[in-house]
Amino acid sequence: SKLLNDFDVVVVGGGPGGYVSAIKAAQLGLKTACIESRGSLGGTCLNVGCIPSKALLQSSHHYHDIMHNFEQHGIVVDKSAVGIDVGKMLEAKAKTVTGLTGGIEHLFKKNGVTYLKGHGSISGPNEVSVALNDGGNEAVSTKNILIATGSEVTPLPPVPVDNAVGKIVDSTGALDVSKVPEKMAVIGGGVIGLEMGSVWSRLGSEVTVIEFMDRLCPAMDKELTKKFQTTLKKQGFKFQMKTKVMESEVVGEKIKLKTEKSAGGGEKEQEFDLVLVATGRRPYTEGLGLDKLGIQTDKLGRIEVDSHFRTAVPNIYAIGDCIDGPMLAHKAEEEGIAAIETIAGFAGHVNYDAIPGVIYTYPEVASVGKTEEELKEAGVNYVVGNFPFAANSRARANGSSEGFVKVLADKDTDRILGAHILGPNAGEMIAEAVLGMEYGASSEDIARTCHAHPTLSEAFKEACMDTYDKPIHF
Ligand code: FAD
């Protein structure tokens, strides 16, 4: 139809990368369409990722608080009378998700983005054909195409996932478990596994993390993840490190896992009530027609782009989980904005040195910039500033003072190169470090900035004092 001609930008994929790009493009006056096959906007993040996981983390945190933390505040509850209604918890989660995905649809209308529900494939440099969810096909012509098709779970061949059966699940299945499993195995000690493991651990599961490497989240600062692991152990997590899963079998209500040491030997058979496979995600570009266009993917399936997110075809761009870089919603959004600004003739840019990463456990883990290992490896002359939450008055008043702030700064210039936080509200606090880094702050700049008392963020200020001088309270 005539309406579907002459777009300035067609965005394929309606996740945080795609929908943010589409809204930005429309705001810049570009005629924009967004194609999404899922039936709702928001992608992995809103539908089966960031948001539903945080809803369950919040719900399970309340339960855990009642059972374990209320007493220290002098609140007396009859714990035997406290129950869990998993169904209601899932309902609340689903309501959050539909509220937010519907909100994006509203934003599309408000900004004049054309929303096409269907699977898009790129039939030529200026044409996308859409297999509509309701049947039929539409061809859309456009000056530019932005690929934001995201990622999917990477299968782990010895442990095939079946979310419908609900015994061996991936993260999507783990968000819909209908009753608290007695014993749960989490295969893969990364962000997603530890968050979902936390949900069910707080609700009463005995959670065992099986990890191939000798440490959790290997890309993060080592000191941080070591202390994080100790914290999780105290909460009842069990860890089988340097271990790989060789075989799995569902036998009635149970799942049998055969494991051995990563280096070989030490075979074991163990039984669980729920197994979560959380070993990684891979770019999703199926049925897009990249080959015919001559658009390359690397050996991990990521679309190759230049520093302006251009593929080998100059008017086709790609951003988010389907290209290189951390698989994070805010990274996808920043790239989307930059790509659209480039298309609109502005200078779009993403600073990859200042992309925060957060693990939403309790306490939270948050990082930005270089790890100590990376600085060592690069031969950078650096200093470390540390401050424990045990010495922060607000954390003490809250009765939640586990963790610490670690700041890494250049020894010669004092410029902040990285910040790593384990502690209550770390995910909010890291924003201060990111902002500082974007402005090229020295640790002294932060240390001389007045922070309200008593707040957790004073711990960040004092870690900065420790970097260039001495903290007051430790
Ligand atoms: P996606 O969100 O994957 O969106 C791509 C969309 O494109 C999908 O909806 C898909 O249906 C659609 N699509 C694909 N191909 C086509 C096609 N050909 N035609 C039409 N539509 C198509 N990140 C964070 O930053 N914070 C978190 O707390 C966090 N928690 C997570 C928890 C879990 C359990 C999971 C799984 C992920 C989490 N992530 C988190 C990662 C985050 O979800 C992703 O990084 C983010 O969604 C990537 O955005 P995207 O737009 O690139 O891709």
Automatic annotation (TrEMBL):
Q: Which UniProt keywords apply?
A: Disulfide bond, FAD, Flavoprotein, NAD, Nucleotide-binding, Oxidoreductase, Redox-active center
Q: Name one GO cellular component term.
A: mitochondrion
Q: Where does FAD bind?
A: 54, 120, 149-151, 321, 327-330
- Enumerate the GO terms in the molecular function aspect: dihydrolipoyl dehydrogenase (NADH) activity; flavin adenine dinucleotide binding
Query: Which GO BP terms, alphabetically?
Result: 2-oxoglutarate metabolic process
Q: Where is the FAD/NAD(P)-binding domain?
A: 7-336
The cofactor named in the record is: FAD
NCBIfam families tied to this protein: lipoamide_DH
Its name, as the record gives it, is Dihydrolipoyl dehydrogenase
Write down the species: Triparma laevis f. longispina
